[in-house]
Amino acid sequence: MPVPVPNLYPPFNTVRLSHVEFGVTDLAKSRAFYVDTLGLQVSEEDSSTIYLRAMEERGHHCIILKQAAMAEACFLGFKVWDEDNLDRAAAHFAGKSLPVEWVESPHITRAFRTRDPQGIPLEFHARMDRLPPIHQQYKLYNGVKPLRIDHFNCFSPDVDASVAFWNDIGFRVTEYTEEADTGRLWAAWTHRKGGVHDLAFTNGFGPRLHHTAFWVPTPLNIIDLLDLMSTTGWLANIERGPGRHGISNAFFLYVRDPDGHRIEIYCSDYQTVDPDHEPIKWDLKDPQRQTLWGAPAPRSWFEEGSLFADTTAVPATLKASPIIAP
Amino acid sequence: MPVPVPNLYPPFNTVRLSHVEFGVTDLAKSRAFYVDTLGLQVSEEDSSTIYLRAMEERGHHCIILKQAAMAEACFLGFKVWDEDNLDRAAAHFAGKSLPVEWVESPHITRAFRTRDPQGIPLEFHARMDRLPPIHQQYKLYNGVKPLRIDHFNCFSPDVDASVAFWNDIGFRVTEYTEEADTGRLWAAWTHRKGGVHDLAFTNGFGPRLHHTAFWVPTPLNIIDLLDLMSTTGWLANIERGPGRHGISNAFFLYVRDPDGHRIEIYCSDYQTVDPDHEPIKWDLKDPQRQTLWGAPAPRSWFEEGSLFADTTAVPATLKASPIIAP
Amino acid sequence: MPVPVPNLYPPFNTVRLSHVEFGVTDLAKSRAFYVDTLGLQVSEEDSSTIYLRAMEERGHHCIILKQAAMAEACFLGFKVWDEDNLDRAAAHFAGKSLPVEWVESPHITRAFRTRDPQGIPLEFHARMDRLPPIHQQYKLYNGVKPLRIDHFNCFSPDVDASVAFWNDIGFRVTEYTEEADTGRLWAAWTHRKGGVHDLAFTNGFGPRLHHTAFWVPTPLNIIDLLDLMSTTGWLANIERGPGRHGISNAFFLYVRDPDGHRIEIYCSDYQTVDPDHEPIKWDLKDPQRQTLWGAPAPRSWFEEGSLFADTTAVPATLKASPIIAP
Amino acid sequence: MPVPVPNLYPPFNTVRLSHVEFGVTDLAKSRAFYVDTLGLQVSEEDSSTIYLRAMEERGHHCIILKQAAMAEACFLGFKVWDEDNLDRAAAHFAGKSLPVEWVESPHITRAFRTRDPQGIPLEFHARMDRLPPIHQQYKLYNGVKPLRIDHFNCFSPDVDASVAFWNDIGFRVTEYTEEADTGRLWAAWTHRKGGVHDLAFTNGFGPRLHHTAFWVPTPLNIIDLLDLMSTTGWLANIERGPGRHGISNAFFLYVRDPDGHRIEIYCSDYQTVDPDHEPIKWDLKDPQRQTLWGAPAPRSWFEEGSLFADTTAVPATLKASPIIAP
Q1: Which residues in chain D are closer than 8 Å to A265, comparing Cβ atoms?
Q2: Could you please report the per-residue DSSP string of A106-148?
Q3: Which residue, of A3, A51, A257, A325, has the fewest CB within 10 Å?
């Protein structure tokens, strides 16, 4: 595949990723993870649902935890520019013969649910309830001091197809990995909001949600989280890191919530607002692609992910194997 | 004045601030400051001009240093979405009876010069030469490890008028200070690229350039710069800080180049991409507005700035006095 | 005065500074400061007394807060090598005609009270109750994450005399400031435990306690404390900093407790265990002595301090004035 | 074995570890590693030898690199309190029937060579040439900003015997690992200078030098080194980390020099000056002993080490296997 070319005049203007809803099997345990350990703030909660936001967010929530019979990722939420763009988005999905259903979504003015061609359940909206700023209420900061939701990463059984679809609606590729011999995409990072990504795809049994990432101030906050998790009963939930990704140049840590949903703690990527920002190509065989410092990712990182609700996952089309830790 | 309302459908799409040209009276000394001390990278240089970029930038330059008879800020550069937007920008300025002159600007495809209503000299372009990424060439990082140009801050003799003009072309206010009794703006921070600002205005004899800011990874890099400047002959060039701004929540340091051009070193503001991001209002009398930790700014910080080339500055319309260090 | 020469074979072996008792006028408010804001851990408390320790300390306490009618520093505590050294210490003080009184000191095996020649009330002991380690209970870390008490700094009316006395009992000078014309000591830093100081003296109305310092992991913890104090009602208690001392090379912040007792938050000095470690001399007129980055200290920093209980303070013998912020 | 009991009145007073001499097979390549990458400062060099010191050291050298036919650790150097203690040290080793040879050691007043009972070659001295301080010459800081040599760690074939010997000369155990069933020591950390260790022993084919450690200011310096090594051709020399040790609580990274000599970069252990500081016991089977965050060490870390010059290594007496990364 040639270098991905962004669509600079997409049919509607997506501002950024917005929120995700997780089905969780033990709400109290999930609260202990997301609130007491990661440090997300509770916007609202009852016996079956918890709405959370990060420290610099003014939208009502970036994560919804919902007590459920089984662990799953219910949908990925995106925010568009305004109500007009929301209608144009609905029209675009409908025009692609994708399902469009307008739904009641708490704290959101108008929202519709749809899916991308690989089946990822999506929710689009233009306006979520806004809360007063808390970013200077330093007494509230704790855990890893999460500042904002940063991105989603999904397994896709056909990354070429995924990128083509999202590229068409204005998601611009910043970095990508291709199979040297076939030129097919193994993975790609695409953004709307001016960082390395809002949404990334990696080849694998899918669609499944690989991880949801939160931005934190500095690498020291990630070290603090490791110390905290290691000494409060969450040792087994540390999966990979800390390290520096070759791709994105970000300092990272991957942890798993009590149901196995993967959370990345992330800082220090770079600005990508230029429409002529050239994507960086990586070779699938380059070990520094994953970790600049050379350490390979564990097998679970390549194989495990959250199933999407009511969604059939299928094997990936590419069989090439990346480098896996022994 | 009521809360500033952003124009969400401006006449042209400005991506971000881009670069600034400084007239400097001793090019070698300025090089020692910007290259050897701050750590900016030389893209190109000859006996009269030096082009610099920061570590994660791919555009050819964010600062041009030009040997000159007197210290001045020659113009502020902005990047628009594409050539079509550039033409629309030129038409917009011309339609406001502002001077539009197409110029040869090195390493830029097409550029025009104009002024805002207060007289700030501006250069708009859509495409600057791109250089290979160096953000993972860690051997090159030194000084304060500057990652990218972040914003300009200008003295304006009439901040209400400045904000009205820039607001109209899509610059959205994130925070502002008003005089409690008159409701007039004392200062405002406006952005395009999704941070707290690309361009800010503060009441004062103007137009003059108050400062140009660079983004760095963490507060520790700012501490490193203080240690370095203090022990390499630049002690007197440290003007204010380190501290945390109330406005923007950023960790800051202000230093002066050999000609007195003020440079801010800056990190940790917050994401503002939402079109419905509410501006934060501050009272001019609140001491935490300037510095969250309470320390007032020195008198020079309120009074000194770089004159723009061939530009007449006039006294400010507001006479209210902020809090100044004794 | 010639360069201070350490007594490498002192009459008894002092290990380190140990603890301080403060008379405080509102115990609840002091608790809010030391426990809820600085993050010290409560070892024991009742309605009139609170015992505190820092995160890596195993001794029962480093600060005793005692409800009192007036704010004062009751005594400075020091730990000696063993009971034999304690007896030798008592004999040494008695031999200098200084008062020696064996006292009941809670959680301490044997202790005596005495004074140095300038009248500073002192308590010496060899063995305090030991508590289980908590340095890896990361859930407990909060506030500025204080790791250990680091040093005391006292106003002395005669620094030459103070240093001569403490030097004789093995406190080795690491850095000092002298009046250029008279060669008399303005200030001196003396240690036992291998850092820049356990006990420092600075010329002034005394004896009074200038400050008590706590060691923290990195400068970022100090920035966190500034953010916290600024937004939880302690803004006026921030006195000086953050900055880098020329002397000691430490990153510092000075804050005041509710009674005005001054606390320094401190990190990154250097190792001084070598018996032939040469003291560094500074000129009283060197502005980088106080702050490497050039900012002068406020007047309060030179004039205010905690009176010692039942102790008469007298004017300093030296009248030279250091550089004071306007 | 019972809890190790320190000898509080050893036959001579060792101040701290001092320096190490490495035989290296390509002096230029070693210089590129130690000077250009780690950032150690050259005190003196010629075509066959390079003397290095770290940023806050005033002794002439902490590492001697010597061009040699084969890679080896020539000796471990220790500094004692004064010449009288040096003579007493020599007498003590001689009294144990260990070889004592007075040698010419460059930049050292008087030095003798000896061995511990397991055969580790040692050099003791009281006085090395002192150099002017450079810790405030911030322009010189680079690489990982090494502040001082921190400790040696050796493979010992009989850790019980090693600890008994060094304990007897005043090295106090701070932490140790024992085999649960036999109560025999697997590893122990012993100190003189008030940190977690000057000298540690770990069970294995020995005596061999496991690693030499340098103290750095913060974990961010270690991240900087990883970024630098990863992008300047030293990727394969990164062996383990970054991580937090359970034992010592230190943040660590292990790298290998061009000959395989292992260097630890280390920060944030804790103060241990109290003579009644209780050692912490760890179970060999506790995975958090090695890495608080759970990641096991690679096989090389357990098996590889530097041979000492002219020294016979023998298999370890304990066969128990710690946890090794697959």
Answers
A1: none
A2: TTBSSEEEEE-TT--EEEEES-B-B----TT-GGG--TT---E
A3: A3
* Confidence bin at D244 (pLDDT 50/70/90): very high
Site from C36, C134, C137, C138 to mutate, A interface, most A CB atoms within 10 angstroms: C138
pLDDT number for residue A180: 82
Contact D144, D194 (CB under 8 A): no
Q: In order of start, what are the domains of chain B with their CATH numbers?
A: 14-127 (3.10.180.10), 143-307 (3.10.180.10)
ipTM for this prediction: 0.96
Q: Cis before residue C121, ω within 30 degrees of 0?
A: no
Q: Phi and psi (nearest 5°) for C169?
A: -100, 20
CA C162 – CA C181 distance, rounded (Å): 20
> Cα B256–B259–B262 angle (5° rounding)?
30
Q: Which of A103, A106, A102 is nearest to A46 (CA)?
A: A106
Q: Between the CA atoms of D29, D34, D37 and D42, what dihedral angle is there, to the nearest 10 degrees?
A: -110
The DSSP secondary-structure symbol of C47 reads S
Distances from the Cα of A30 to the Cα of A34, A254, A258, angstroms:
6, 16, 6
Q: Which residue matches tokens 């939420």?
A: A77
CB contact under 8 A, B230 and C292: yes
In chain A, count of helices (H) and strands (E)?
6, 18
**Per-residue pLDDT tens over the stretch B31-41:** 999 999 999 99
Which tokens belong to C53?
């320790």
Asked if A214 contacts A144 with a C-beta cutoff of 8 angstroms, the reply is: yes
pLDDT at A166 over 80: yes
Using a 10 angstrom Cβ sphere, with 0-12 exposed, 13-18 middle and 19 or more buried, the burial of residue D263 is buried
DSSP for C221-269 reads HHHHHHHHHHTTT-GGGEEEEEEE-SGGG-EEEEEE-TT--EEEEEE--
Residue among C137, C220, C230 minimizing CB distance to A220: C220
Cα–Cα distance for residue pair B104/B106, rounded to 1 Å? 6
What does R_g of chain D's alpha carbons equal in angstroms? Answer: 19
Decide if pLDDT at C6 tops 90.
no
pLDDT tens digits along D131-174: 999 999 999 999 999 999 999 999 999 999 999 999 999 999 99
Cα distance between residue B165 and residue B228, in whole Å: 41
Distance CA A319, CA A301 (A): 16
Q: How far apart are CA C63 and CA C212, in angstroms?
A: 10
Which of D138, D220, D226 should one mutate to test binding to chain B, selecting the residue with the greatest count of B CBs within 10 A? D138
CA Rg value for chain B: 19
Closest-CA residue of chain C to D281: C133
Q: Which of B206, B195, B124 lies closest to B161, judged by CA?
A: B206
Q: What is the pLDDT of residue C114?
A: 98
Report the residue of chain B nearest A251, measured CA to CA: B217
Copy the structure tokens of residue C190: 């003396």
User: What tokens were used for B296?
Assistant: 């007032």
Please, which residues have CB within 8 angstroms of residue A165's CB and are 6 or more apart in sequence?
A116, A117
Q: Compute the distance between CA of residue C104 and CA of residue C184 in angstroms, rounded to an integer.
A: 39
Could you tell me the CA-to-CA distances from B150 to B119, B248, B265 in Å, in that order? 22, 12, 9
Q: Which of B210, B193, B101, B110 is nearest to B155 (CA)?
A: B210
**What's the average model confidence in pLDDT over D72-100?**
98
Question: Are B208 and B316 contacting, i.e. CB atoms less than 8 angstroms apart?
Answer: no
Contact D230 B137 (CB under 8 A): no
In this structure, what DSSP letter does residue C204 have? S
Question: Letter for the amino acid at A43?
Answer: S
3-state helix, strand, coil in chain C (%, to 5): 20, 35, 45
